[in-house]
Amino acid sequence: MLEDARFGGIDVSPWGKFDRGLLAVYPLLFHLLDVAAVAGEVWDRVLTAGQRQLIADGMGVPLGEARCLVMFVAGLHDLGKLAQFQQRESHPWARVSLALRADTAGWQRMPHERASMHSALQLLEEAGYNTDASDSPGVRVAQILGGHHGRFLQLDLDGAAKASRVNLALGGPKWQDLRRRYFALLRHLTGAQVVPLRLSVPASVLMTGVGVIADRLASQRHYWLAKAQAPAFGAAEHWAQTVKDAPQLVDGSGLARVELPQMPFAGVHHGVDAPNDLQSSLIRQLPSAVEVKGPGIVVVTDTTGAGKTVTALEAAKILNAAAGTAGVAWLLPTTATADAAYEVLEAYVAAHRPERAPVTLVYSHSWLNTAYTDHQVAVHEPSTTDEFWDDDEEAGIEGAERPQERVTVPDGWLRGWDRALLAQFTVATHDQALMAALPVRFSALRLLALSGRTVIVDEAHSMSPFMQQLLNRLLRWLGALGCPVVILSATMPARLSNELVHNYRAGSGRPRSSLAGLNAAPSYPGWVFAAAADASLTRMDPDACAAHAARHRRQAAIRLYPVRHPSHNDPDGTPERESRLDRIAAEIAPVVTGGGCAAVVCATVADAQATYQHLRDTLAWPAGPDGDLALLHARLPGHQRESLTRLVRERLGPTGRRPERLVVVTTSLLDMSLNIDVDVMVSDLASLERLLQRLGRLWRFENLWGPDSGRRPAWVRQLERPRLSVLQPTDHGGRILIPAAWRTIEAAFLTHATATYLSRQPEHTLSLTLPDNIQHLVETVHGDATELARTAPALEQRHTAYTSRRRAEEHLSALHLIPTPRHTASLADLHRQHLHAREAATRLGALPRRLLPVYRTPDGTLTLDRAGTHLLRLDHVPTTRQARRILEHTLPVPTAWVAERRREHYAPAAWSTHALLAELVLLPQNSETSAAVRFGRHALHLDPELGLVAHHDQ
User: Fold this and answer.
1) pLDDT per position as a tens digit, 850-906
2) What values do phi and psi take at 368, rounded to 5?
3) Phi-psi region for residue 353, left (φ > 0), alpha (ψ -120 to 50) or beta?
4) Half-sphere exposure of residue 210, counting CA atoms within 13 Å on the CB side?
5) How far apart are CA 657 and CA 655, in angstroms?
6) What's the rounded Cα separation, in Å, for the pair 18 and 91?
7) Is 0.85 topped by the overall pTM?
8) CB hemisphere CA count around 203 (13 angstroms)
């Protein structure tokens, strides 16, 4: 062993990395040692104490031995390259020793990750590892090696993995001997002499994630190329140097954990001087509960605008201390809410004044957020021939376009798409985390990323039954991984609260019998803590609950107006009745004449566009509508939507300069987690849950500002209470008539049940006290709605269909879920299905396509703007800055709208290597006309004021 570590002691001619441009060759053994050393650094500085303990417990060994084993296993990942892989490149193959090149013995082509798995199995057995069954530690270590490119592989113990068959496929005796010597040398240098008697599934998943991180860090071209150009004389010398180099490599990745110092409450929560009653009770009660019982799950229910975000961050701080975790993964339902949360979390982290603490924003189009840098859209040429992820391998190479430095800006290695979740502080959409419960590539990396900190699931009520099934499975895994969780909602039925808590506890090992009949729903408003260790609950102190409710108590109303939607024409001879647009104009007219801020929330983009035009053209705006009337929806170009959303948040936020007059016509974009306040709100009919969310934006800051703040116009201050005006589309007989375009937005039962409930109130007006009445209203429609459904035969039929639909969605979602840890025997069970992250369904329906509106000038040139100032070069790959500009002009459309696209609608061939540009659909418009572009029966054109306008043939 010692001889092998010295100069000339072992054959290092087989290659592990090769740069075609410089013809640089890097020995495989050195790469294996690099990865092992980096894995040790990842163990020390990236994994949390809780993750390290879970791995050690999963192997039944002390922490020090567990570290050595993790390094050893990570280093073995590419052992299978000592096989036919060596012939992939002629230049490095020619440098392999003559003895090895003469001993190929008819070897067979095999992916090197599978070759690593098969070859290591035999060597592990020789080293004393049990390899008898799928759950044996030796088999699971072998599968960890096979999974380092993202998917766990099936290991056929009695077939392809038998030693005799493996030796025939992977070369002659000299190759077999070299694999054995590399194995032994790695084991010796890492100190992994102990043989674990077990290896749990959660520990296996975390070890796989560590190996993937270490491999990717050590595979960066700037790291290994320098070593290839000045190689060490022997394995021992290289090992000593790479152990010294590993800390700097991890530092450069931005992955190293930081400890935020203790700071005063008011110093880290901008604009909040002291905790409210709910927050105070949590700060007072939760530490003693977690000190005794350990980590678990916290459910917080509170009215909108009452400070759930601050509560969650305080809970995360307490839970992290108990669980040995560090950081926050904050999950939200939409990109708009994620953008707003990113700014909050960034400010929270920056307020602690860390030297460096990257905050990442993770969703499929986070490049639209201007707070983010250009590194995410950069394209770099791969230089290493063996990388599975070569499309983004070099995303960490520093470029010339550097942003202004902030300690919270993620830079370098963390900018990669599937790596940003690893940052200690992350804001992401629900989908990004839910993919960890699906058999997508690198799901182990997602689970590792989530498990190291407190996961905050915001707006949990907003998930469809399909997504709730995914969340249930994810909670099972988070419970098994010892990951603290905080659930936030303003309108969550008790049924859902119980379901989420029970799944988390089942994952943490609680027997089903201990969960039966346990009511884990918190009071409203309130919080409840369910420890993973037992079946006990810690609830918010009732006195604090009453005090918090009293402090936020206010009166409000929801008024239902039957209207005629323009999609419906009444029969001739029927009396004229109020149209939807007329009612909206009547509600908004006082704002136009007397000032104030209003929001009109429309069911669809087409309704929003029509409403905007009607208000613009029919009301007498004192200085014209420009600046006082805004249209905000999803089908605006990204840069336009992002700037409008930011403007609305600033002008209607708690501390922004209140405009004299502003009317925002929008869709459901502003429903959740946007901290804004309006004086007047009009909404199309929606489920009661959504209406309550919207109601929370009416006079939201009244308690904060006080009645004499002067922020509301005089005519608004004279009103007794805020009122949400809801427009119910009906036929000429007064029966609810949902337009066809609305029927895919929400279940028919929910909108019909809401309309039925509101229509039965005196004068169609629901008077309510907030927050006292919220939970009852939520339960009436969104909980067990059987009683309401039985009040009308048609409603009961819809309730039956709704229940069947829920079950069908849950069944469909369950078809693709990975098994729970308890039901995972072979690690290959986690990847029985082959799903790409782009194809993984975290919600029902076809994924939208990104449309790029462009303009064709008279000379045939394509530009991004009608004026022709931003030319498009189609014959080369865009620079980073050009790619960002292109992406900022895109917008989402339903896939069906662009299904019948022609050649002129495809992205140019030069963009095919860019992951974000390759699948764009072009909308080539004439720069001198406003003619629509046809995609079969769909005609589309981009209006500079209205956004994308769509017309569809019947």
Assistant:
1) 999 999 988 888 999 988 888 898 888 888 888 889 999 999 999 999 999 999 999
2) -75, -20
3) left
4) 34
5) 7
6) 9
7) yes
8) 24
